[in-house]
Amino acid sequence: MSAHFTNLVSSLFGRFANRAFPTVIQKAVNSAYVKLMGLDMRGFEDPGSYPTLNALFTRELKVRRKFDINPSVAISPCDSLITATGAIEEGTAYQIKGMSYDTASLLGEAMEGTDSLDGGSYANFYLSPKDYHRYHAPFDIKISRAVHIPGRLYPVNMPLLKRKTGLFIENERVVLRVEDANGHIHFMVMVGALNVGKMSFVFDERIQTNASAQERSIYDYDGTVSLSKGELMGWFEMGSTVVMLSEADSLEYDLRDGARIAYGDRIGVLRS
């Protein structure tokens, strides 16, 4: 199967974003991007200090975010816009109001435990190109499995969310099956998008995205990968979406559609 045009565009943009131009030119490129996209650089290094545009995209926080350390409180994994949140009914969730998708199709047949999602909850965290692109553990987790599912790289912005059915299911994604401290199962899905040249994961460098892969890749950890709440999980190289799906009676959200939230903000409570 030949690469879809969205993957080719993203690959070309990735080459540009990873190129280190002479200092004067790079500073101008970075400054222009900050102004064009409206980046809030408070809490980060000066834009001109980043050696490539991609380094600016994937910038690390200079000032550590504070969050509620109560283990029952779930925090936002990223800076984002909540495009949809609610209950999972008959295996259905929504990418945005009126545009449903099948949760089993999103997670793929390599994931176990999807039946437990009925009656559970979901939330979609959309990261725009201006947002901080790193994602963190929303609560203490153990990662049991990661699955990379190749796909296209359509934009996941609001206009396309409103008109393209099954957008999350068509796009490339990495699905993580995680367990909280109470033994409840959750799935975190990092969805690729146009110009997202790569999704990186600090706990496993083998996971390679936006590559030439045509078949899914499965990584099992047997409970050896644990991350504390707020700990860095990885990053998008440009904006994209994190989807969280939780089994019944495990996570009660305090969110509303259209809310803009920051990494570290309270999003809900874990149930024992």
Describe the structure.
- The structure is a single chain.
- This protein is α+β, with helices and mostly antiparallel strands.
- It has 2 domains: 5-57, no CATH class; 73-270, Glucose Permease (Domain IIA) (Distorted Sandwich), CATH 2.70.70.
- Helices cover 18% and strands 33% of the residues.
- It has helices at residues 5-18, 23-37, 53-57, 103-107, 158-163, 167-170, and strands at residues 73-75, 80-87, 92-96, 99-102, 121-127, 134-136, 141-149, 173-179, 185-191, 199-201, 217-227, 232-236, 240-246, 251-253, 260-261, 266-270.
- An 8-stranded antiparallel β-sheet has the order 11-7-8-9-13-5-2-15. Strands 1-16-14 form a 3-stranded antiparallel β-sheet, with no helix packed on it. Strands 6-12-10 form a 3-stranded antiparallel β-sheet, with no helix packed on it.
- A hairpin with a 5-residue loop joins strand 8 and strand 9.
Task: Please outline what is shown here.
It is built from six helices and 16 strands.
Could you report the average pLDDT, rounded to the nearest whole number?
Answer: 89
Q: Which strand-content bin applies to the residues?
A: 25-35%
Helix/strand/pairing category: alpha+beta
Query: What is the CATH class designation of the largest domain?
Result: Mainly Beta
Largest sheet: 8 strands, antiparallel
Radius of gyration using CA atoms only: 18 Å
Enumerate the strands of the largest sheet in spatial order, edge to edge or round the barrel: 11-7-8-9-13-5-2-15
CATH architecture of the largest domain: Distorted Sandwich
Tell me roughly what share of residues is in helical segments: 10-25%
- According to DSSP, the number of beta strands is 16
Q: Provide the low-confidence segments as ranges.
A: none
Shape: globular
Calculate the terminal CA-CA distance, rounded to whole Å.
46 Å
CATH topology of the largest domain: Glucose Permease (Domain IIA)
Output the helix-strand order.
HHHEEEEHEEEHHEEEEEEEEE
Number of helices: 6
Please, how many domains?
A: 2
